[in-house]
Amino acid sequence: MVRSTKADKARQVNAAHQLLKRNTALSEAAQSLARTFDLSLRQAYRYLELAAQLDRPIEITEATVPITLKLPPTTARRLRAHAKRSGLTIGTIVTLSLDAFLGARKGHG
User: Fold this and answer.
1) How many CB atoms lie within 10 A of CB 8?
2) Distance between CA 49 and CA 85 in Å, rounded?
3) Tell me, what's the pLDDT at 106?
4) What pLDDT was estimated at residue 107?
5) For residue 44, is it left (φ>0), alpha (ψ between -120 and 50) or beta?
6) Of 3, 16, 17, 20, which one has the fewest beta carbons inside 10 Å?
7) Distance, CA of 96 to CA of 61 (rounded, Å)
8) How far apart are the first and last CA of the chain?
9) pLDDT at position 62
């Protein structure tokens, strides 16, 4: 059995959220999710439980790939300290920073 990715899980929870939003009966919603996503009924009910707690759909994030960075020790310390203070992961900080930098550089190279 292949494990679901985070994006797969987000799509399944969002589908469950939509079914609940349309006031679909719980048993019918579970059967629909099970058929659509090839899930067990037990797993479909779990997604419905998660979806019932949501105010809005979950954002579906892009898959990530691991990379290695070499940073000066002072930059690495500052990055770790910022991650700890902000509650963000180092990967999120690097992604946001690079997206901002690369977006600002459009048309410059």
Assistant:
1) 13
2) 32
3) 65
4) 59
5) alpha
6) 3
7) 13
8) 45
9) 82
Tokens describing residue 51: 């979806």
Question: What sign does the CA torsion over 69, 75, 81, 86 have?
Answer: negative
pTM passes above 0.85: no
The pLDDT tens digits of the residues spanning 44-68 come to 999 999 999 999 999 888 888 999 9
Q: Contact, 48 vs 30, CB < 8 A?
A: yes
Identity of the amino acid at 61:
T
d(Cα 109, Cα 102) in Å, to the nearest integer?
A: 10
Structure tokens at 68: 């290695």
For the chain, residues with pLDDT lower than 50 are none
Token readout for 80 is 């770790």
Residue with tokens 């579906």: 60
